[in-house]
Write a structure and sequence with these properties.
Blueprint (H helix, E strand, L loop, with lengths): L5 H13 L5 H26 L24 E3 L7 E3 L16 H14 L8 H8 L29 E5 L3 E6 L6 E8 L2 E9 L2
Length: about 200
């Protein structure tokens, strides 16, 4: 028979809410039923409303994060709270611009080679470097401190500088000597053209 009064409904509700508290067995059964309902809801709700593509990747990332184009180009920066910062340059590095070799660059290369082969017997490394210092970049001078002038086989320059490549900010030249030819890189600095590297020409 239907319950038609508010007092009757309240009595039924009291009996339902009070049922789990009547005994430990009732309480345990109520908890098991509640857990089963929560688990069932967790399984059925995503199926009913649809789960976003790529969810549940299992690698700790948010869904689809690892599949976004360019994701590998970003890293987390602890300094700003983990926001991603680009690791690639937004624009490519500017390519060197080809240009005819400047006479000043060739003159410095020739003067440097002349100072290089000038190592009379008994000259110290410090004395030899002093002749090269005005023609060499400050960054490259420390690398030449280990050179022993007595081991240099060349004693004179035997020809004019030959340009192998030339740009607005650097010139590569080869200078013949009576020993191995010298391959020099001359760069433009605030102080003028200076030799930034040398090697034996192939």
């Amino acid at each position: 028979m239907p319950i038609r009064t508010h007092r009757g409904r309240a009595a039924v509700y009291r009996r339902l809410w009070g049922w789990p508290l009547r005994s430990p067995t009732h309480l345990a059964g109520a908890l098991v039923l509640l857990v089963a309902l929560v688990v069932a809801a967790g399984i059925l709700v995503p199926r009913v409303f649809g789960e976003p593509a790529g969810a549940g990747t299992g690698d700790g990332r948010s869904p689809g994060t690892g599949d976004r184009p360019g994701y590998s180009d970003y890293v987390a920066d602890p300094a700003d709270g983990g926001s991603r910062l680009p690791t690639r340059l937004s624009e490519p590095l500017e390519s060197p611009t080809s240009a005819p070799p400047e006479p000043a660059a060739l003159r410095v290369a020739e003067q440097w080679a002349t100072a290089w082969v000038n190592h009379p017997k008994g000259i110290s490394n410090e004395q030899w470097l002093e002749n090269l210092r005005p023609l060499t970049t400050e960054e490259y001078l420390p690398r030449m401190e280990s050179v022993n002038p007595a081991n240099i086989p060349a004693t004179r320059v035997t020809g004019e500088p030959e340009v192998t490549s030339s740009f607005t900010s650097s010139v590569d030249v080869t200078i013949p000597t009576d020993g191995p030819a010298l391959s020099l890189t001359v760069v433009r600095t605030n102080a003028g053209w200076r030799v930034a590297q040398y090697d034996a020409a192939e």
